[in-house]
Design goal:
By secondary structure, this protein is mainly α. The protein has helices at residues 2-28, 32-66, 87-115, 122-160, 168-175, 179-191, 211-261, 267-289, 294-319, 326-353, 355-374, 379-383, and strands at 165-167, 199-200, 206-208. The chain has twelve helices and three strands, in the order ααααβααββαααααα.
């Protein structure tokens, strides 16, 4: 059982890692073709999750089988009715109904011939015989429905032999009915004690023949849910920890830029770095308020800011040289131009972070204008 749990957790972990990687990649591509490719991959992975979930369910029941708790064929009579309810009554009602239909029909024809030349009200005769005919038809339907239930019961039993459980969708295929019908049918059979200790799981996925197997299944489900909840909590803690680490590293870089800026003597460069600080503070303020945007700044933290710090450090080192030769001046100029480029790039990043907010605002304004127009409250309506 421990090995099964480890395999299950490993499958879930690997699939989730794949989904997270694809979601991260989606944020990095702008062209529609790349996004379509990633969406197709993501869809495939999610389908894989559903398939894996089904296999996990089957594996749980296979685990019960390994414990030798599956019902043997010779023991199945302990859990099903030897003489299922409705067989005798169904046969009796079907025969009675058919005989009644025949008798009523023949009697109607006979009376119709006899009284056709008399003054008897034929409409009354037709109504009376019609009522008897309907009653007999209903009796026949009731009887055949009970016999049909017996036939379905026998088909269910054949599916349950040697296992003691079966998927609802499989039973649905066997009798060629919808799954909702099967669930209702099984519940009715359990009420009639045709399945003495039958159970349907909460998800209405499996029909289980005995208390023992059902209890094992429920325990496994609870164990699985508990592990799943624990994994979710761990993931949330990990995400929160990574989020906090990202914010902390970003703030450390900002403090470092601020500290370096105190050594800058060139006013133009000083203003550029001050602007960079302000942009970065706004970016990380947004990340604090919107943790879902963390993927947008991960590359900023891991690559761009370390390179920026290195450039500023080099600029200070060059500025401290007593002799400012042509090479030093050119290098400092290139760094200054690079800072302009960096500021522009971070401005674009900040703008992208507010893209969704801007779209929401635009949508709200459009909706508001539409409502005002409908109520005749716009300026154009007043002019009319």
């Amino acid at each position: 059982m421990d090995n099964f749990s480890e395999i299950e957790d490993l499958i879930n972990k690997k699939v989730k890692e794949a989904i997270n990687s694809i979601n991260l990649a989606k944020g990095k591509y702008n062209n529609s073709e790349a996004k379509n490719i990633l969406n197709n991959i993501l869809s495939g992975v999610k389908n894989g999750v559903e398939l894996a979930s089904q296999k996990i369910e089957n594996a749980k029941l296979e685990e019960i089988k390994k414990r030798n708790k599956i019902i043997k064929k010779e023991e199945i009579s302990l859990y099903i009715a030897k003489k299922p309810t409705g067989k005798i009554l169904g046969t009796f009602l079907t025969v009675l109904g058919i005989l009644g239909i025949c008798f009523t029909s023949i009697s109607f024809i006979f009376f119709l011939i006899i009284f056709s030349f008399s003054k008897v009200n034929l409409i009354s005769v037709i109504i009376v015989f019609g009522i008897f005919l309907i009653i007999n038809i209903l009796i026949t339907i009731n009887g055949t429905s009970k016999l049909d239930r017996i036939k379905r019961f026998k088909k269910y039993v054949r599916c349950l032999e040697n296992k003691g459980y079966c998927r609802i969708d499989k039973l649905s295929g066997v009798i060629n009915k919808k799954e909702k019908f099967v669930v209702k049918d099984l519940n009715k059979m359990m009420e009639l004690d045709m399945f003495k200790k039958g159970h349907i799981d909460e998800e209405k996925t499996y029909f289980i023949l005995s208390d023992e197997i059902y209890n094992d299944y429920v325990n496994m489900q609870e164990s699985y849910k508990k592990r799943k909840e624990e994994n979710i909590e761990k993931e949330e803690d990990t995400k929160e920890s990574k989020h906090n680490d990202t914010i902390k590293r970003g703030e450390e870089y900002i403090s470092q830029i601020q500290a370096y800026n105190n050594y800058i003597k060139d006013e133009n460069m000083y203003l550029k770095l001050t602007k960079l600080e302000e942009i970065l503070r706004e970016i990380f303020k947004n990340i604090k308020e919107n943790p879902e945007n963390i993927s947008y700044v991960r590359k900023t933290i891991e690559h761009y800011l370390p390179m920026t710090i290195k450039l500023i450090s080099s600029y200070i080192e060059l500025s401290e040289q007593s002799i400012q030769g042509e090479n030093i001046k050119n290098a400092k100029k290139e760094i200054e131009e690079s800072i302009d480029l960096i500021n522009k790039a971070f401005e674009n990043l900040l703008n992208d972070l507010f893209e969704e907010v801007a779209m929401d605002i635009s949508t709200d304004i459009s909706a508001l204008k539409t409502l005002f127009t409908q109520d005749g409250l716009t300026e154009e309506e007043f002019k009319k």
